[in-house]
Amino acid sequence: MLKNYFKIAWRNLIKDKQFSFLNLIGLSTGLACALLIYLWVTDELSIDKFNKNDTRLYQVLKKNGDGKGAIRVGENTQGLLAESMAKELPGVAFATCLRKERDAGILTFGDKRIKAMPAYASKDFFNVFSYQLINANKKALSDISGIILSDKTALKLFNTTDAVGKTVEWNFEDNADFNGVYKVADVFKAPPSNASDQFDILFPFELYAKKQAGGMGDVTFWGSNMVSTYLLLKPGTNATAFNNKIKDFSKAKIKILYAGNDMVDYEGDLFIQKYSDRYLYDNYVNGVQSGGRIEYVKLSSIIAIFILIIACINFMNLSTAKASRRMKEVGIKKVVGASRSSLVFQYIGESMLMAFASLIIAIIIVVFLFPAFKQITGKEISLQLNAGLIISVITITFITGLIAGSYPALYLSGFKPISILKGKLNTSSGELLIRKGLVVFQFSISVILIVSVVVVYQQMKLIQTTNLGYNKDNIIRFSNDGSLKENYSSFIAALKNIPGVVNASDVDGDLMGHYSHAGGGIDWEGKDPNLHVEYYGNAADHDFFETMNLQMAEGRTFSKKFADSSSVIFNQSAIAAMGLRNPLGKTVSLWGEKKQIIGVVKNYHFESLYKKIGPAFFTFSQDNPTTIAKIKAGTEQQTIARIKALYNQYNTGLDFSYAFLDEDYNKLYASEQRVALLSKYFAGIAILISCLGLFGLAAFTAQRRQKEIGIRKVIGASVSNIVGMLSKDFLVLICLALLVAIPISWWAANEWLQSFAYRISVNPVVFVITGVSVILVTLLTISFQSIKAAIANPVKSLRTE
Hints:
By secondary structure, the chain is an alpha+beta fold. The chain has 25 helices and 26 strands. Strand 8 (167-171) and strand 9 form a beta hairpin. Helix 10 packs parallel to helix 21 (670-704), helix 15 (429-465) crosses helix 23 and helix 23 runs antiparallel to helix 24. The radius of gyration is 34 Å and the shape is elongated. The two termini are 33 Å apart. The mean pLDDT is 80.
């Protein structure tokens, strides 16, 4: 029986090659898109899920006011918080803190020198996280004379992971206090690729606290917020109840220890978030979690589902449209005793055959496109066969075949044999309505995708063309690592003299969300005691403002003509928040240090455009970790080669690593840009699949109305009359699709744009252009079949049985 069903299914497929080809292309393309999206979504959902105690692992976050009535959420907490929580809160099994660095240092062993990214972890780090220690020495972080290397770093440095007991020299320009010789206490397996925190070397946090005590990096008092805190809760601990308990935990500490000090007024509310959720749920609006990358995961998943549905609709429409050719087959089978269930089984079997044939083609497409897909997503996604992937692929294909074949199977098997054999079967209005409704649905989804692509493109264009308050073009930056800093004055002077270098300077932090200072501890004479403002500061050297083309509203920049060690420059937003009039020359206290305001810089974007410009300032320093250089346009290649040669003079044998500032800026919106690019491709594929179905329906309509067209031509109808007659019904459906899709796409676009502090307004022209484009594509799709039918010889049409 099954063999017979298979034979019939195969004969039906090859009997009508055009319809079979259209179905095969549509389903295989839809499945290929779904598989690629599935691989990306699976990878995104796996980020930070590698910890064995994932369900109990949380990060402590803090809510702070920004001085404008809004609430910001950040991960910077006190260095004392982890230990205190572990001791005082019964729901905490282990707690640890981690001080992350933005730049790499240099490890030296013999004549080998490599760059390594450092972090400082407290003693219970390996009890909280599931990083594997090769020698299982979990007390390694308790010895301040030792360090722990990743296995990859050990291999680079020693050509083996058996590194315990060996000594290395560490040189770190960001913080020279840690430079020196250290003993390797253990080696850990490097963070997996799906870990959001990546580091190569771990120092004991106790060493960090000891080295930084009394300085700007002091983490030994409750007023310092410089580390990330992580908790492993005990089984059964309720996260909601725990949040309520810790809300004022740090405030209470400060209130007791610093009675009479206004430090408590700046302290925020603590709460916890599941560690593995931080990557996907990273966006907060006014202190409330409001999505993040998870929105793009959901969007991509919805797109995959819609593309599959569009492909299934093609199959349904084409199968039911050509049902008249199988009426006699159904009638005869029913007369000789075939049940409806057996017919349903047969026709669903045919769709399953088509679906799994499409799967084979889809897999070929995925393998072919996979390298380009990885490049677009910026991920090292693996295409390895495993039980989960195989089951998922088979399940997706099975569901696709079931959905695609269910309606045609029920439709065909429902024919009455007497009516069929008498030739009295007419197309019902319900059938036509369903078929037309499916076409409307197809094109509605396509229109929504097209509008989304245009809106995302326009928002990305706004991001790239917005006046940031500085010029990011043709600026490179690199770390002042190795022995460079020992002779930095001569290096920066030589750098400025290189042909092609317009200007150069150095800075601590950047203008893309990384600061050297942050907090609310700024005071001045006449300050309102009820005013609580969060400030974000960077330390900069001479010529920084000139190199970055930052514009002054009043006053001056840092200058060699003055001793600026006690100077500060605020932005306009800070001066407005402080309520200062005639600020130049006034003295403020920055965390206890007296500073004189020498200038006010015009507002500039120092974070992404998701956030409004906040209060910011610059202090003067000539000991900064990052060099920036402005390069003359058109000379980038040769100028960078000269800079590299100069760098190698000061750092012999060390690789010169640099980055363009505009490229780093674009990385702030990497997720959006990838979604924009992927949406463009997927919108095109959705239109293509929809048009394949439309092409097939147009061909079927032309065949079905062949005699009518022949009669009309005989009595004088022109080619344009015939084309118009065949095109009219399809254009009405497309116009209905536009009416459905435009309001939905307008709402969806505005919802997405709300997450940006600076955004475009959705222009009605977008919908006009989209509507015209879809109508033109529709006309082009059906015109071939319409014109072919219109110019056919009416004599042949009328002779056709």
